[in-house]
From TrEMBL:
Top-level lineage group: Eukaryota
Gene3D superfamilies, A to Z: Ankyrin repeat-containing domain
Classification of source organism: Eukaryota, Metazoa, Chordata, Craniata, Vertebrata
Signal peptide positions (record): none
Name of the protein: ANKY2 protein
Record organism: Erythrocercus mccallii
């Protein structure tokens, strides 16, 4: 809790990588993220909320149960982990991270990755200490990956075309309608209707016209 309260993002990240638990509470029943938020250290809150241990992803690089092949090729684990742990959730940023890595920017690779993200999302929702924020993040990235696949399959300009679509503003005011619709679609497709976070998002967005 002390690194988070101090506002030092680097030390907070190092503590997390060393195995610090994010859901442990102090004597007043508060987690490190809650205490950091209380004292205004929002950068540290962002680091904690976006942290995902590499070993949790590496689990999918080994065959499980009756599977003969792992769900995720080892070569994709590093690039996927980089995207999972990014704190910049803008869809263009995520597509750029895909585009800059030739291993990821292929239909088959993205199919494997989004299926793993869906499994992680499910696990986040069904584990004892439910993590709705992480579940929603995994689902959101999965939706962007699936849209990347559509552009790779159907458009000659591929991911460049996707980025242009996300950035293009409508004529009257420059508002990025395609980007807005993508984000709303990802929220609508979130498979766990009972999630408090989902209900909050829907209540906030529903009355707002595009």
């Amino acid at each position: 809790i002390f690194p988070a309260n101090s506002g030092n993002k680097e030390i907070t990240w190092m503590m997390l990588e060393a195995g610090a638990e994010t859901d442990v509470v102090n004597s007043v029943g508060r987690t490190a993220a809650q205490m950091a938020a209380f004292v205004g250290q929002h950068d540290c809150v962002t680091v904690i909320n976006n942290f995902f241990p590499r070993e949790r992803l590496d689990y999918y690089t080994k065959p499980q149960g009756l599977d003969k092949e792992p769900r995720l090729p080892v070569k994709l684990a590093g690039p996927l982990h980089k995207i999972i742990t990014t704190t910049n959730m803008h869809p263009v940023k995520i597509v750029l991270l895909v585009k800059e890595n030739p291993l990821l920017a292929e239909v088959e690779a993205l199919q494997k990755c989004y299926r793993v993200l869906d499994l992680i999302c499910e696990k986040c929702m069904k584990q004892k200490d439910m993590n709705e924020v992480l579940a929603m993040k995994m689902h959101y990235i999965s939706c962007i990956f699936q849209k990347c696949i559509t552009f790779l399959k159907e458009r000659e300009d591929k991911l460049d075309g996707f980025i242009k679509s996300l950035l293009k503003g409508r004529d009257k005011d420059g508002f990025p309608v395609y980007q807005e619709k993508l984000i709303r679609e990802s929220i609508r497709k979130f498979p766990y209707c009972e999630a408090t976070l989902l209900q909050q998002l829907v209540r906030s967005i529903a009355p707002v016209e595009i």
